[in-house]
Fold:
Amino acid sequence: MKKIARFVVLSSLILALVTVLSLSSFVSAPAIYAQDGSILDKVIERGKLICGVNGQVPGFSFLDPDTGEMTGFDADFCRALAAAIFGEVTADNLEFIPLTAQERFTALQTSQVDVLFRNTTWTLSRDGELGVDFGPTTYYDGQGLMVRADLGVTMIEELDGASICSLTGTTTELNITEAMESRGLSYELVPFEQSSETIAAFEEGRCDVLTSDQSQLAGLRSSADDPGSITVLAEVISKEPLGPAYLQGDSVWADVVNWTVYATFTAEEFGITQANIDEALASEDIRVLRFLGQGEEASGSYIGLDNDFAVNVIRAVGNYGEIYERNVGIDTPLGLDRMAGLGLNTLWTDGGLLYAPAWR
Amino acid sequence: MSEHRPSAFDKAQHAPVPLWRDIRVIQVFAQVAFLVAVVVFGYMLLHNLINNLEESQLAIDFHVLERPFGTKISEGQMDFNPGESSNFQALRAGFQNTLRVVGIGLVGATVLGVLIGVGRLSTNVLVRGVAVSYIELFRNTPLLVQLYFIYRGMRITLPEKLADSYELPGSIYINRRAINFVLIKGTDTAWIFYLCIGAGIAIGIALWIWRLRVQDQTGRPAHTLRWFLPAVIILGGIGWLLSGQPFVTETPRLEKFNFVGGDRLSAEYTALTLGLVLYTAAFIADIVRAGIQAVSYGQIEAARAQGFSGGQTLRLIVLPQALRLIIPPLGNQYLNLAKNSSLGIAIGFFDVYNVANVISNQTGQSVAIFAVMMLIYLSMSLTISAIMNAVNYSMRLRTR
Structure:
């Protein structure tokens, strides 16, 4: 019996020793998030950019039923980024991952996606707490309300007692609550997890009001069976600056994303389009040549990209104005007039808010 | 009988067994090794999690529960104030909604399940056929699909314009958004009525027990109800008169957008509860059928021979015996129902899971929030388990 006891004690000791050793080696092992290289390096090594999008908002990111391609404003910025990194967009070097509002930040935090172009509002709390950083705003939006036209409603004040559908886990939920509470209105909030479910609930009369970003409302209205039966109220209840988001603390990657967006702004400033890019390459203007990475001066190489990455971006998707007009502009089903209202989504030279830092 | 000489076998038996082949040592060693492996693995996971969260500057912080929730919860709790309520209070409101679904769901699924389970064994071909098709249909399609089907179905088929709502007697209005009905509210003096009716029931039960004892001792019929009901009615009546007017009613009336006043069951609540009841009832029905079939046929024959009617046989002989077999698997189905209630998020029901999702998305504290949520579901499940175990114990076969 003594022998057995001794054996047990001994074997336990050995096991404990093994445990401690394995634990200590585990402690010193690098964690997944260790900054052992930028996301840029990983993307290049992988040969593919993984871009998180919404996938359910026509005009911004929506799977085209005819071609099976992800189309839209946000999707084009993903393409611009892929072109900036790889020179061109091919079928293999860009992958779109559709994410719900709930999934998006987790997907970013766990590196399932390299970047989010998913109509994500830049807020203080998200910037500070979620371990993500935000890039330059690509679309200045505001939250609006959509109601059935036959109700004859024109102002929020007339919505006392209404049922309101919204997406769950978004800033829109918080904003509408504030807007209604501050006006002392009673209301019923019906929260859904999927955009498609929210719009279906609105169309089938579960609620009187659908609230979301104005740009999304335009898209949803355009895809409704009878767009004429729906009105979007003129009142805007919040600021919704939408733009890219990426993992915090990787400034190399942040530079790449930010300057790709700035390249689309700057191209519009110089009047460079997909159509006239070849003429621009032959330009005499030293500022244009520097922007396009032609000649001696450094451009993209400052941020670890091809010196002429702006050319690749413009060839792939064009300048900001082209991206806008192609996806959400006045001639698209969304029909969002760029100059309408305050014209926030125009260049600073036109009185808008799009302003790229100096390109030199 | 020859003289006993130690054989090779005996020698082997007395030879000391090497430790690594001693079954007692091996058993202890294996258990210690397993325990250590589990602890090491758990520690590795936890360590990895915390390390990675720290790397991305996302320390787990349970204080987010104290922060304001900021979103309205329209479901259930009408007095939830989004401006002043913390995340913790929001979780509580969500949990109340979960309990509303689970509580009604358990009762409904049990009643429906027993009916269908008995119907499954009916000698009537039609009844049996309906029961069989019901069980096969609901048991073999996913619950999520059923929920969508019910919810979307309600939304498409029920009246869209609130003015066209189906009106049932007693001011019940049914439309796409909700079932509106009369709310009965207690007034300030309602407590007097509650007190009196409570006393009435207590006295009634005492009388009931006394009558049963009289029956045991004298053999005269107990007539329990003839004693119980008057006690309750008389005391309840006194209470009603004393309190003046214990209750007031509030009838729903249609205003511009919605019915105002009265009480309501939202379409989401109705669809979720209905879906859970229908789905779980199919499983319970099969459990009930199996339990009944497991009762020996001799018991039924014996009951018939003694002149019991069909209903009496079922009520007094078969079901009490079947119950012992039914309760353990029934508990499993109850747990399933409770956990499945989290699917409500798919159809916009603001239950505790939906609330937790909102908090986790607004604060980014998914680990902390999901830990709290798991704790909530775990405590609900363990409570149900404990109750079912207690019932199971009280039903056990008493042997002397």
Observations:
- Chain A touches chain B through 61 residues (CB under 8 Å).
- Residues 25-34 of chain A have pLDDT under 50 and may be disordered.
- DSSP finds 13 helices and 14 strands in chain A.
- The two ends of chain A are 83 Å apart (CA to CA).
